[in-house]
């Protein structure tokens, strides 16, 4: 997947406080790029899962490029996917709910559908998200690497987002005990490539037999940052329904996760 210019932030709302948590990071990105932020809800009078006060929410946001879309019918997963396909450069920013039960996302859920069917990277917000200390944009992105060829996808997305949002990059890898030396040349090589392209880049190699726990710890130490990981690697969507490192990170991360996909 070739990274594209970010042209719009799309935040799906269903009337819950959990879904509304995605507005904050989306607003920070939209303000930085001066692009539209669209709040989307699908009218569902039967189940009651729609944002009845979506216009009021939009009016309260201190940003003059907020748009509102109230879709009269359809399933939210399909509506979101269609909205992304209609405008290239659209980035979905959405929050997961506790009812998704992270360790085994329910097949057919809106979250699972979007992650599998939207080709662009998706910004995911978990229940432990902590808003940044300031109203400014993101300044740093942690790029999670797992040592497979699919790291190239997260690196390409990281480079694209870093240039658009003026981000500093930190490449992070969790090595198994005794494997640190093997990881260093690869990680430093990737960092040097990004530096030659004019991007401020550092590397962090961690050691642990529990990568999800160790990565969560470092995410906690980077408040106000953004994390980027590949959705088809070991931290990936192929294991999302059954439980994976990515689902654990999403459950516990205090910062947004930008989940990208390999071709």
TrEMBL record:
PANTHER family: STRESS RESPONSE PROTEIN NHAX, UNIVERSAL STRESS PROTEIN HP_0031. InterPro entries: Rossmann-like_a/b/a_fold, Universal_stress_UspA, UspA. Residues 7-125, 138-261 form the UspA domain. Belongs to the universal stress protein A family. Pfam families: Usp (PF00582). This is Universal stress protein. The lineage of its organism: Bacteria, Bacillati, Actinomycetota, Actinomycetes, Micrococcales.
């Amino acid at each position: 997947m070739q990274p594209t210019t970010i042209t719009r932030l799309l935040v799906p709302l269903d009337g819950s406080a959990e879904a509304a948590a995605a507005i904050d990071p989306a607003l920070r990105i939209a303000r930085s790029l001066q692009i539209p932020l669209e709040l989307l809800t699908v009218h569902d009078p039967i189940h009651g899962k729609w944002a009845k006060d979506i216009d009021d929410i939009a009016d309260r946001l201190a940003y003059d490029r907020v748009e509102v879309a109230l879709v009269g019918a359809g399933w939210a997963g399909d509506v979101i996917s269609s909205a992304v396909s209609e405008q290239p450069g659209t980035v979905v920013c959405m929050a997961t709910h506790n009812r998704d039960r992270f360790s085994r996302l329910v097949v057919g859920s809106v979250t699972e559908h979007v992650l599998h069917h939207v080709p662009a990277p998706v910004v995911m917000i978990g229940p432990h998200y902590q808003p940044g200390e300031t109203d400014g944009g993101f300044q740093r992105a942690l790029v999670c690497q797992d040592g497979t060829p699919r790291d190239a996808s997260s690196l390409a997305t990281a480079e694209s987002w870093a240039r658009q949002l003026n981000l500093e990059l930190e490449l992070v890898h969790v090595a198994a005990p005794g494997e640190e030396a093997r990881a260093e040349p690869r990680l430093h090589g990737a960092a040097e490539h990004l530096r030659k392209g004019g991007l401020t880049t550092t590397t962090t190699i961690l050691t642990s037999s529990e990568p999800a726990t160790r990565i969560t710890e470092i995410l906690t130490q980077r408040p106000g940052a953004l994390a980027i990981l590949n959705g088809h690697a070991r931290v990936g969507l192929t294991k999302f329904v059954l439980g994976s490192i990515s689902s654990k990170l999403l459950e516990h991360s205090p910062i947004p996760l930008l989940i990208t996909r390999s071709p």
